[in-house]
Amino acid sequence: MENSEANEMAVKLFRVVFIGAAYLCWPSSFLFFKNNKKKY
To answer: Is 1 helix (H, G, I), strand (E, B) or coil?
Structure first.
């Protein structure tokens, strides 16, 4: 029981970190792509 609970916690933590990283990285990469589009 404890092991499955720990696994669920790890999955939730991983999701939060992954979504947080994507949320932080997406706007900057989108702006970078938008700025680069003018050159091509």
So the answer is: coil
